[in-house]
Amino acid sequence: MNFLDQLLSHAPALLVAIPLLGAFLTPLIGRVNDKLRNIFVIGILGFTGILVILLAQQIFASGPITYVFGSLDPYVGKETVIRILFEIDALSIFMAMIAIVLSFSAALYSWAYMEKNTGLDKYYSLLLLLTVGMLGMVLTGDMFNFFVFLEITSIASCALIAFYINKVKSVEAGFKYIVVSTIGALFVLMAIALLYGQYDALNIAKLADSITFSFVDKIALVLLIAALAMKGGIVPMHMWLPDAYSRAPASVSLILIGTTQAGLYGVFRVLFTLYGNVITLPTISMGWALVILGLLTMLVGVIMALIQIDFKRLIAYGAIAELGYMFLGVGTCLTILANPDITLAQAPFAFEALKGGLFHVFNDALDVGLLFMVAGAVYYATKETSLNRLGGLARNMKYTTIFFIIGLLAISGIPPMNGFASKLLIYESTYQLNPILSIIAILSSIMLLAIFIKVFHAAFLGPKLPQFDTVKEVPRSMLLAMGFIAAFIIIFGLFPDLIVNTIVDPAANALIDNAGYMRWLIGG
Amino acid sequence: MNGMTKIVKTIAGISFPFIVIYGLYVIAHGHLTPGGGFQGGAVVASGLALILVAYGSKWAATKIKEHDLSLLESVGAIGFITVAFFGILFGGVFFSNFIVGTDLLFGGIPLAGAADINTGGTLPLMNFAVGLKVIAGLFGIVFIMALAISKKEESA
Questions:
Q1: Assigned domain for B102 exists
Q2: Partners of residue A76 on adjacent β-strands
Q3: Is residue B1 in a domain?
Q4: Residue A274, CA distances (Å) to A225, A288, A457 in order
Q5: How many domains does chain B have?
Q6: Is 0.95 exceeded by the ipTM?
Q7: How do the domains of chain A map onto residue ranges?
């Protein structure tokens, strides 16, 4: 076995272990030299990214991989699955790709954006730890392990949100976030305890195999969905999100998108896999619950975004609205999946909706990420976030303006950007479930366009303002990070079928293929 | 923050070694008895916090720097993950317990009832690493808070 095979066979563990090692080495390297530390962090994330791509190729070719920690065999005795294991299917690796793209560009962006701040050793350590948490959440195959990684993300992101400790509002946002997410994490822990008490297992596949949907399971389901949807910023549990996104440094907002989506991944995994065997029972109508939450999220998001005057806060509400589309798409699929009278083959639109929802997870990460980076760039250049006082920036910051236009078109679903591809999938498929759903979705998109056109006009167009006379284009590292994401947006927008067929379709298949997730358990 | 009275200092001085020894005992027996690196580390850190409160943060600041504590913390974490990485090299899997069952230190297999400390493989090593991290981290937090209070008192 050569080195590459060796590396690949351990890649699931290395994906988490390498950023973790990097996180603790960062303060030591930071003592030597600041530039060296930045290169080290970017290098670590780049290497992790390469591992993700290599692993993704293998998974798309040959199905889910399990990696057992501490031993080659997950079993102790014949029955008990006691060891912690990572179970990586196409959906997990899909989410891991999103996480690594976001954290890589955040590290790139931070080079110039955070340069003038102190405490950067800790900042980069936490940034890597946050990446570890996100990757762990999406890769793990063990409920308790999931909880541990959830806590790692909560603590790391709380510290990062409150990074500007001299600003009262940042600290307030960080405090709000830690209170909300700790309560959420306790919900998750409680639910895991309920499941563990009944089935004597923590492994997701094992639990999914033995779940019976008793009364206690229903309580556990509600606790899990409520807590994870809250981590995902779904209305009405979104109150922490605008504060956290808008008060954190822009590079941190970028990664926070990844953590909210790891929360959404938790929702999908719980519904489709953990409760996958019992989802067809008539007592459960989680699909419609997701659809309604999605609609609510979209509407509240856009309406609140309309009245904002703070640049980053407005984008944060836009991000909430985008989250609704994912719930709408995935919920539509779940309504059909949970309906015992109709199979998935009879309603092909359900699978399309699922694909649209999952594709939108990636697209949303890119679009909102790009917009946050633009807002950060505007703040970096002008030290101003209020839209009332900004204006005429297009004259001095032409690249940033171009990136904003790309982000604006993408988030409001205008061709040829990526948002169009996934939103069209969602519109077409939800229309067949109920026309009102897609009408509301289209309406929200139009409102998003209107809102961001307003922002574009307020911040970039108009005459040159005297106080911004000396404003210069932002440094190269920030432009590079924005360009990196913008390139993804354009490629995804121009070749949507390629992306859907190569990465989204396997991910959607993996989500509904419950037997595939449990194959190692039944075969082993 | 200034030191407290001579009575407190003396009693803190007497009880300090016992607290530390107990904490180290909990860390070292982590693989055999309840407790482990985190719990023992917390005990040791509380002993250090006792000394800090009794003698005052100004005195403590002459003995140790916050910088060194964060270095120790990193070393603890790196030690932990390095042992896990050695699992790939020697045991074939990440976190593999490659020492247990060999003639090396801690190579024995712990049996029910017989509490031999020379057992457990990588577990005691990982407990030591976690213990170091928790001692440095927890004491570091208390220490920084004490320094912040003394700065506030000075400015007041």
A1: yes
A2: A80
A3: no
A4: 12, 18, 47
A5: 1
A6: no
A7: 279-524
